[in-house]
Design a protein that fits this description.
The chain is mainly α. The chain is built from eight helices and three strands, in the order H-E-H-H-E-E-H-H-H-H-H. It has two domains: 63 residues, Winged helix-like DNA-binding domain superfamily/Winged helix DNA-binding domain (Arc Repressor Mutant, subunit A, Orthogonal Bundle); 101 residues. Strand 2 and strand 3 form a beta hairpin. Helix 1 packs across helix 3, helix 2 packs across helix 3 and helix 5 runs antiparallel to helix 6.
Length: 184
């Protein structure tokens, strides 16, 4: 029996959207390990939904390179593509650097308190070897910085699609941070 971590369904969220978000979460957080076989039936059963939203999610994840579909053989979680991880890490580095520059223009003492408190909680998560808590706190840390710009889109047009997206930190967990910080 397949065991997945299920996320709470957000108000107004369709089953299809929830299925995608939940399955992506399980991929990114290594609940579904690279190379593991996954079936629409097992995932649908684990989530308590029909196969249709799972099938749609599998198609989308395959298009994004996160699942490998082999007709008549099965579907597998894609192996980590080190080049894609490095490209993502580089893009994040550039975007986050510019965002910090912009945020510093409006930095308040309340923001500094929030960042320091978050860093303390991150240290605690590291000492407890709680990777999922650490990554959630790390994402919150970056959200605090992005929120300082009150929705600013890195100095660009809000319509250009360049903005902070939830999960961006966790999705790049393959940058080695989690492995080095949480190894036994």
């Amino acid at each position: 029996m397949l065991s997945l971590e299920t996320l709470s369904r957000e108000t107004g969220e369709s089953v299809r959207e929830w299925a995608f978000r939940t399955i992506l979460y399980n991929l990114v957080n290594l609940v579904l390990l690279p190379g593991a076989a996954v079936s629409e039936n097992d995932v649908a059963s684990a989530l308590g939904i029909s196969r249709t939203p799972v099938r749609e999610t599998f198609i989308r994840l395959a298009q994004e390179g996160l699942l490998d579909v082999y007709p008549q053989k099965g579907t597998y979680v894609s192996l980590v593509d080190e080049q894609r991880v490095e490209e993502g890490r580089f893009m994040r580095l550039c975007l986050e650097g510019r965002t910090v520059e912009l945020a510093c223009e409006e930095f308040s003492s309340e923001s500094m308190v929030a960042l320091r408190a978050n860093l303390q909680l991150q240290r605690l998560a590291i000492s407890e070897k709680n990777a999922s808590r650490f990554f959630a706190l790390d994402e919150d840390f970056h959200r605090i910085i992005f929120d300082l710009r009150e929705g600013a889109h890195l100095g660009g047009d809000p319509e250009d699609g360049v903005s902070f997206q939830p999960g961006s930190r966790a999705q790049s967990a393959g940058d080695g941070l989690g492995k080095s910080v949480f190894s036994a």
